[in-house]
Amino acid sequence: MVNTTAWNRLRYSLYAPIYDLVATKTFCKPRRNALGQVDWEPGMRVLLVGAGTGLDLPYLPRELEIHLTDLTPAMVTRARERAEHAQRDVECRVMDAAALDYPDEHFDVVVMHLILAVMPKPEQGLTEAYRVLKNDGQLCVMDKFQPDTHIAGPSRRALNAITSLIATDITRQATPLLQQAGFTIRRDEPVLMNGLFRALLAIK
Question: Where in this chain does the record put each Methyltransferase type domain (predicted)?
Answer without folding.
Answer: 48-140
